[in-house]
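re: ur question from yesterday

yeah so i grabbed the chain u mentioned. its 502 aa long if i counted rite. heres the sequnce exactly as i have it in my notes:
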Amino acid sequence: MKSYLLGIDIGTSACKVAVFDKEGKVLAAANGDYPVYYPQEGWAEQNPEEWWSAVCRATKETVQKAGIDPAEIAGVGIDGQSWSAIALDKEGKVLTNTPIWMDTRAQEICERLNKKIGEDKIFEVAGNSLQPSYTTAKIIWYKENLPEVYEKIDKILQSNSFIAFKLTGAITQDMSQGYGLHCFDMKKGCWDEEMCRHLGIPMEFLPEICECDHVVGSVTAKAAAECGLAEGTPVVAGGLDAACGTLGAGVIHPGETQEQGGQAGGMSICIDEYKADPRLILGYHVIPGKWLLQGGTTGGGGVMRWFEREFADYERMMKEQTGASSLNQLNEIAEKINPGSDGVVFLPYMSGERSPIWNPYAKGVFYGLDFAKTKGHMVRACMEGVALSLRHNLEVAEAAGANAEVLRAMGGSANSLLWTQIKSDITGKPIVVPASDTATTLGAALLAGVGVGLYKDYDEAVSITVKETRRHEPNPENKEVYDKTYETYLELYKSLAHMMTK
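ran it thru and got these structure tokens back, copy pasting raw so excuse formatting
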């Protein structure tokens, strides 16, 4: 019996591909890099064809490293970054680069539509406020700024559905990515034709919606030749990366919460009834019949990658001598600094900010520097700033009626014991770290496993594959310090918001 599963993750800086056995053990994994283009301020875009090329390279490498026959793979699951607007023509050709989740070029379009249609009316249908990061306004932006592209559009796809298309030829829209479009009825899980007309989005642009574990097709001969999979391998629709990571972290029941530590930060609380708040993000879970109330921030693990790139020349030099990674060295100097960073506070708004402040013009800020402060203070303040943004989102979610008891951490940040403990101390929540460092690709693979019948349901899939490696409990003394830091954090943005405009 075929017992292996392949998970594909379309991230912001790279794709990740992994092969798992039925118990969730990673046989092999590989990455494929691609760039983000920043042609103008507020723009952030990628070429979907570069995603596909990277997927092909990484898939071939993964299968080869795993030492298995591709025909032994029972199914393929795909997850991807949110809020793409991939424009395809009738021949399936990509017409232009897609703006990605960090892109805020359509701010003025959002302001106009909110005024014309009414913010409340849009929110009532979509369960989300209309912001430039989402897919909706990007489609309108094509119409107004790239008419030669717009007139050729046959379908608008999301990141995972584009890879599913390249693998199978099927045009799909999974349930969990529906939240990117404000003509998606969040209560019913279907397109709202009236809101499509109000927004000016043609219904024919929108693929038919399917469940995330639905088998949409099988790997074609052409795709098999390009990526190294076996022709005929089943492929499921897949879903949003945060939702698949939530599944891969073992969050499938109401109240369970995933803490995101990838390029972006945030959290996803599993709920079984509709609860929306305009300051947060609401979408369907990849698990049928569940929603995720999410907080999505721009300043996650990417903050440390930025700091390392710009300020860690010494640590990179020492890495050549000692072999210790530059990020681990930064972690060590941050660990020597007191909780609260001796008054240094960091606002992690490195690409504008999403929830809960929704300000595309927000900027990163270091506050509290003086001659006594060191690089270690700045590193720790970066970690604390990301954790403070997590607390901000959790508190807004609690006000909306969604309480998180325990956080289940995933993403690269979860590998840092210090950073994970800081998040526990600042939020006051216990944090569990699951065994897999590949929670997102595991979640995608589990969708395929349920979709092809390798697991009878998600309870079985999670019980077999997701294990706990460590647990962090909040330190009450540190929490007391951080409560004061949090007050400063909130007051800083409140005081500076009038400057953070276009």
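noticed a couple things. The chain has a mean pLDDT of 96. also Residues 375-399 form the longest helix (25 residues).
anyway ttyl
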